[in-house]
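Reading a protein record of the kind used here takes only a little practice. Think of the row as the fold of the chain written in a discrete alphabet. With that in mind, consider the following protein and its fold in token form:
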Amino acid sequence: MSLTLDQVHRIAHLARIEVDDTEARSTLGQLNEIFGLIETMQAIDTQGVEPMAHAQDLAQRLRPDGVTESDQLAWRSAFQAIAPEADAGLYLVPRVIE
């Protein structure tokens, strides 16, 4: 697949980007190089190749999903002590929608 100069101008128009002929010709060359690379990559036989989540075979370092804070009620009370308004463990905010 390759684009024409008219198609580049049409894409620029749709994207509300102003390009002159020099820029359009330069962009046309770059886009056609990208499409050529995509076609080359699509022609490669990938049967039996496992998909990868990352370019390098690395293990993702994750921490366990668990509560690490102790005495959460004391922390909440400390945070809500400086809040403008709080009640029953909830922050009270002004009504936004009438």
Notes: Residues 34 and 75 are 54 Å apart (CA to CA). The chain has a mean pLDDT of 91. The first helix runs from residue 5 to 14.
